[in-house]
């Protein structure tokens, strides 16, 4: 019977031989596997941290650029530049949008410009001429009844003036007919509907009719845009 020491040595040698055989078999199998079928893994990668979104803290804003003032609308926080800006007062934007300028001192002065008056306002000789509107009696009255509009470019000229077209002469004849009927103590009412394309001169023609009425001492009631009555006239229920 062999001693126990020899048996332990034999068992250990057999274990080493079996482990070496298994390792060699696994290595041979790995070499026989195609390269494309083997799974490749990286031991270390920085792609995820590199492309991850940066989490910003709440309340943080970008610093203003140099030379640009920003308006800070948050309560209790001042603007970094020290200028919080000034908001326009109530109705200031509307007043600026509807502002009407009737004079321009930089425009050329036309010495030959003739004004309309009570005697020549209904004359047929005015057709095709540019006639000025008297400042004292007509321009102030037209402004009071909102006859001027912001889109009529009055600020391009030194003083308000209108071109007496054939339509204006037709309107002058209607005014003359009403005055003749009143002189004969007859009542005559004329109703007309003015229509036309956009920016064709309808509002300017109405302004010319109002100017004729003011020069002929008529009592004028104008409803601008047909939305509200002028100041001083009570609203009807």
Automatic annotation (TrEMBL):
What segments bear the compositional bias annotation Basic residues?
66-77
- Chain spans, region Disordered: 58-92
Q: Does the keyword Ribonucleoprotein apply?
A: yes
The record's similarity note reads: Belongs to the mitochondrion-specific ribosomal protein mS29 family.
Arranged from A to Z, the UniProt key words for this protein are: Mitochondrion, Ribonucleoprotein, Ribosomal protein, Transit peptide
Q: Specify the species.
A: Pyrenophora seminiperda CCB06
Q: Where in the cell is it found?
A: Mitochondrion
Question: Which Pfam family, any one of them, does this sequence belong to?
Answer: DAP3
CC per GO annotation: mitochondrial small ribosomal subunit
Q: Recorded GO terms, molecular function? A: structural constituent of ribosome
This protein is called: Small ribosomal subunit protein mS29
Is the keyword Transit peptide in the record? yes
């Amino acid at each position: 019977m062999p001693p126990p020491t020899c048996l332990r040595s034999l068992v250990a040698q057999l274990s080493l031989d079996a482990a070496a055989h298994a390792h060699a078999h696994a290595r041979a199998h790995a070499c026989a596997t195609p390269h494309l079928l083997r799974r490749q893994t990286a031991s270390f990668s920085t792609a995820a941290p590199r492309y991850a979104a940066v989490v910003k803290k709440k309340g943080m804003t970008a610093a203003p650029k140099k030379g640009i003032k920003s308006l800070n609308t948050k309560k209790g926080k001042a603007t970094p530049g020290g200028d919080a800006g000034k908001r326009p007062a109530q109705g200031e934007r509307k007043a600026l949008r509807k502002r009407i300028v009737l004079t321009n001192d930089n425009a050329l002065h036309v010495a030959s410009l003739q004004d309309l008056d009570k005697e020549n306002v209904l004359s047929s000789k005015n057709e095709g001429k540019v006639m000025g509107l008297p400042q004292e009696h007509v321009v102030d009255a037209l402004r009071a009844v909102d006859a001027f509009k912001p889109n009529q470019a009055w600020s391009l000229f030194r003083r308000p003036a209108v071109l007496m077209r054939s339509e204006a002469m037709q309107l002058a004849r209607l005014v003359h007919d009403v005055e003749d009927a009143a002189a004969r103590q007859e009542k005559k009412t004329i109703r007309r509907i003015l229509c036309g394309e956009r920016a064709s001169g309808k509002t300017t023609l109405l302004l010319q009719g109002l100017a004729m009425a003011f020069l002929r001492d008529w009592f004028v009631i104008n409803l601008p845009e047909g939305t509200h009555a002028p100041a001083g006239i009570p609203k009807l229920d």
